Amino acid sequence: MAGGHLPLAELTGSGRPVLLPSEIECSFLPNVELESEESANFSVRLKSGLLILTTHRLIWLLPNPVPPGSKGFYFPLAAISQIFSSKKSMFASLRLSFQVSVGPNGRVDTESLVRGSRSIPMTVVMRGKGDVDSCDQVLGELEASILRREQEIWESTDKSLHDAFQDLNALMSKAKEMVMLAEKIRLKLLSGSLQAGTANVEEMGSKEEMQDWLLSVGIISPVTKESAGALYHQQLSCQLADFVKFPLERSGGMINLIDIYCLFNRARGTELISPEDLLQACSLWDKLDVPSMLRKFDSRVMVIQNKSYRDEEVFARINTLVTKPDTLRMGISASDAALTLGIAPAMAKEHLLAAESLLCRDLSPDGFRFYVNLFPGIISDELYLVQHHGIYALWNTTVSST
Amino acid sequence: MRRRAGIGGLQTAAAARDQYRLLGENVAKIKTDLMKEQLATFRSQLEDFARKHKNDIRKNPAFRSQFHEMCAKVGVDPLASNKGFWAELLGIGDFYYELGVQIVEICLETRSHNGGLINLQELCTLLRQKRKTSREAVSEDDCLRAISKLKVLGSGFEVISVGKKKLVRSVPTELNKDHNEIIELAQGQEFVTVDEVERRLSWTSGRAIDALDILLDEGFAMIDDGHKDGKRRYWFPCVSSIASTVNTDA
């Protein structure tokens, strides 16, 4: 029988649980099985026991007569949340489920929100011939106990929130001082950059220190031509340059900045970076010798692309695409382009818009469609003359052959 | 210092310049030391605060919101960087940055349905479904803060107010005043007709149709021609109270 890392319940000589001060027993459920969902470092499989609900805990014991040396386990009510109603059917056993908070070391939390704690589902299976009523009673009492505890916590929080606000005010006045000091630093940074020829290593070093200082306090100063940014962002910049190589390859050389934000943070798991961290780090690529760069479109969409990426190449491929017989007639949409060119649909639209000198857009209830631009091939003086060369001619023959 | 003529005078002047320079460097050094000292004091004050109130911030959305407001008033941004003391000691950075990622995911998942414009309430509902196993409650205020951080990444993430509702836009398409008014009108029955727009907003037919066409092109509206009266209805998923069913496997 595995109790996992459940805290042990102290038992008296006769096998009853030792109650905490002011703890009262509320109800009992005989012949239960307790199991947790399989998880890395927390596994509970307890069979044929007695479940005791008290005002403070949920205790599991072996039933009387208790073999000497056996142990009891418990869950503090503070670690329990979200009780699911039991499944009732004639043939299946009655079940109760709840979520329990488990810390990173596999121990049940009493202090909530230890960093890295997860919520693990637990099931109580009633194997005995216990009737539906007693099960409902326990469910009701469990919910009531938890609500009571939460209310107690809130009440004590209310008092402590008063203190919290006072402390918050004190903290903020200190923060205000720091902001004023930061202004002086910012001016110092600016004046430093105006002095020509004083860009020696020491000056740059202290500039970085100042950037780090500002970052610690929570003030972002933009990366300028002169400053190299905070050390943190410089390091992040290198990390990102390595990271984006694979996603860039996969998406044809260009990827949305916001997609990189998600990909990078998902890969990181913890100690995520802020959107501003990402932007600062990518802005620093100018100063490094990396193959990727940040680019801003007119629509204010920002992308990361390979330095070797050439718009002309993509335009050439788009051109080939729109001069095929069916696309001469039907045009292409952003999703068609995305499929054929092997780039993301959102990017495809940007490309098509950027390629508008060789394309013409058409707005219809179906959305945007793009056609090859025939206008350059039409000579206004010879408007009605049917041409034999060029795109116009090609279009003419294709369309007439339907 | 009395000026002296001749080489002696030059030497004195040079010595004086050196002295001033050294003094200047010392002054600079003192300033750096002062900065470091101030930073250390601030950090320890923040550590004290965190020890006592970290839980309050994480558990209590109202307190958290108040905290953010005060930071904004003072001029610091606790979410500016993961490297800042705020994120490090109070641990709220990861909460918001992760929220940002989840919001982007939800917007992408629902884009084919609503064109990139989603009701804030619907977003929060989908977010809570996605975060079922997490213990930290997410308020609308939290969502708004996470989205305001995403704005800087330039894909058009923004919260716009239309009538009584707040909509989250995740595409760079700008909506002008006319579009906003139509969407606001749609909040009544979740759809509009051209006649209704002309009548209620006192517009010309051309103006109404142009605005509706653009909303249609961008995917914010859908056409419904199936009614007996033959009038075309324009439906707006972003103001719909029926949440879209989305497969949110976190």
From TrEMBL, chain A:
Family matches, as Gene3D superfamilies: 6.10.140.260, Pleckstrin-homology domain (PH domain)/Phosphotyrosine-binding domain (PTB) (2.30.29.30), Winged helix-like DNA-binding domain superfamily/Winged helix DNA-binding domain (1.10.10.10)
Subunit structure: Component of the endosomal sorting complex required for transport II (ESCRT-II).
Known function: Component of the ESCRT-II complex (endosomal sorting complex required for transport II), which is required for multivesicular body (MVB) formation and sorting of endosomal cargo proteins into MVBs.
Molecular functions per Gene Ontology: phosphatidylinositol-3-phosphate binding; ubiquitin binding
Record carries keyword Transport: yes
This protein's UniProt keywords: Coiled coil, Cytoplasm, Endosome, Protein transport, Transport
Protein's name in the database: Vacuolar protein-sorting-associated protein 36
Location (main, coarse): cytoplasm
Subcellular location field: Cytoplasm; Endosome
Pfam families per UniProt: EAP30 (PF04157)
Sequence similarity: Belongs to the VPS36 family.
UniProtKB/TrEMBL annotation, chain B:
Protein name: Vacuolar protein sorting-associated protein
Keywords carried by this UniProt record: Protein transport, Transport
Coiled coil region boundaries: none
Hydrolase found in the keyword field: no
GO biological process: protein transport to vacuole involved in ubiquitin-dependent protein catabolic process via the multivesicular body sorting pathway
UniProt xrefs under InterPro entries: ESCRT-2_cplx_Snf8 (IPR016689), Snf8/Vps36 (IPR040608), WH-like_DNA-bd_sf (IPR036388), WH_DNA-bd_sf (IPR036390)
Functional note: Component of the endosomal sorting complex required for transport II (ESCRT-II), which is required for multivesicular body (MVB) formation and sorting of endosomal cargo proteins into MVBs.
UniProt keyword Transport, yes or no: yes
